[in-house]
Amino acid sequence: MKIAVALTGMLACAAAFTWPYPAQFDYKNTTISAEDIHIVAKNSKSSLLESAISRYTAIISKERFTPPADYKVERPKPAAKLGKLLIEIESDSEELSMSTDESYTLDIPAGGDGTLKAQTVFGALRGLETFSQLLPTLQGLRVVRGTPLHIEDRPVLAHRGLSLDTARNYYPIADLKRTLDAMSYNKMNVLHWHIVDGQSWPVESKTYPELQKNGAYATNMRYSYQDVRDIIQYGKERGIRIIPEFDMPGHTYIVGQSFPKLMSCLDKQPDWDQYAAEPPSGQLNIAKDEAADFAVGLIDEYAKLFTDEVFHLGGDEVNRKCWEEDPDVKAYLKAHANATVETLLSAFYTKVHGAVEGQGKIGMSWEETLFHSEYAPPKDTLIQTWIDEQSIPKTVAKGYRSIASPASSYYLDCGHGAWLANFDGNSWCDPFKSWMHVYNFDPWANVTRAAERELIVGAEVALWSEQSDAVTLDKYLWPRAAAMAEVAWLGKTDADGHVRTTEEVVQRLHDQRFRMVGRGIGAEPLQPLWCARNPGHCLLP
Description:
The chain has about 550 residues and is of the alpha/beta class. The protein is built from 18 helices and 20 strands. The chain has helices at about 45-60, 120-135, 175-185, 210-215, 225-235, 290-305, 320-325, 325-335, 340-360, 370, 390-395, 405-410, 435-440, 450-455, 475, 480-490, 500-520, 530-535; strands spanning about 1-5, 25, 30-35, 40, 80-90, 105-110, 110-120, 135-140, 140-145, 150-155, 160-165, 190-195, 240-245, 265, 285, 310, 360-365, 380-385, 400-405, 455-465. Helix 6 (about 290-305) runs parallel beside helix 9. The protein is elongated, with a radius of gyration of 25 Å. The two termini are about 30 Å apart. About 50% of the residues are buried.
């Protein structure tokens, strides 16, 4: 039997348990024992692969996961057992980039050794995660169902990300690492680290050490260079790239705590809403060469610390009134007859994007840089679309690559009401986005031309932290981020054009949620346990 979508009733086969679902899954009906797990790399000297084998051996050995619908299943009586899992990779290269091949094939026979083959170590990592999900424990016995089975798998989108804001509230390194673990369990491959914002500057700067000294919430709420390098390595070991975002020229009030002369409209009160999207107000002064030089200095420093090929420049939610009322800006415009706020902003963008290019990096920015300014970003710029779902087709129609992050579907912080203490109402992006709403969003909707569909290269959920910190992190992210992860890995439709529905996938997501909880991730339940144990019985008539 060959399938491209997992259906609700497939509880007796291996396919029932995997998340994200593989691109191709062939299986039969033999159950074999898998009590003794031995994973061996053939002809590879990759330290990343060696580390992954040790990690997954430990996960599998510790894990005794029983799918909730199998709580009454009879103990299997397998006539054969799984031998070793042999891993073969074509290249020991440990270079991780947007173009890295993550494909793999996995074969588990009805007894004897299994094989996992991949072009790269990172494809092998994805295959190891799938292998770990094929090993349920039924009445005390670890097994593989559906053998002999054959999987051929590869992602649809190259960028499958999470944007995490660690500036409005601080997240300890241990929580970031746990999040990277959870991302790896769902085959996500980008942590977009929104590391600074107007409220705080927790990351060390050797060029401008005052930024962290005056901008971190506390001495124990900081990220050192070594912390950053630790997170980059930890992510790489799990096939996850770390893309930093240093938002500019907006969202920079905290810079003014060290360099007030570089700033405009610092902490305007009480009418902050006239100058910023949220308090505190403050933007780099685009009429001052020193402000642009400062921004370039930041890029030159952090482009070396963060090793990924992509560098996010922000560029969102800039406020024109902030500059129009600034005395230095007004003086500059008076002295330069052809200058406007828009020409100043374009000149600033030209300098910072040029600095990113000068560091050999690819720029990434929020969609306002493309749509809400006169500046034309370099054509290799990744445009993160968030304001409107129609921003995706608009972006690719202009020939730019899109990372889909629509607030209407992928903003996971929404749904908790306003956070301004004198307003008892909804937040701007309410309501709450359920896992079903996340899963049902189609990044390719309204994009019909093949060349433009290819420019949709990523999807990314976001957790902004006005109302989140380490206490709420897991439950706000999981399993909703996992819903996006499957769509980004597998696409919205199968080979026959069938659009996968939440009714069809819910049982697999139940399994994934319980599996993640067993691995130490505080993921929220989807439904009462009774529903997870009785598939198909908790549907709207």
